[in-house]
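Batch manifest, entry 17 of 40.
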Amino acid sequence: MTLTCEDRATITELIAMHGHLCDSGELDRLDEVFTTDVSYDVTDFGQEILRGVQACAEAGRALGELNPVGHHVTNTVLSQQADGGVHARSKGIGVYADGTTGSVIYEDIVVRVDQGWRISHRKVLARRVPLGG
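Output type: structure tokens
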């Protein structure tokens, strides 16, 4: 199956929706972005891999005031995989309440489920040094 322009637009919006839901505190709606059994890898930040959409919501609540006030995603590149899934690579910019920022790379596996496209795996990689370190 070929990835259509409509699929590409839908997946790009799906990736963007994560930031909107987090920034507005609508963590109970993360199932609109992730599969229920999502694997959310934040080991690059010294954390454990989060397993399941509920664990992602709980981690966001636990982080509380340390969450960014703005999650911004850009430079999304999609490539179709042989199994019908999609690999998505995006740049993320987090803006914190004190005005500082951080940069990450999102490595996503996006799959089509009954509800539509959802992220089944996300790895978040911190950008700490220029030129790939």
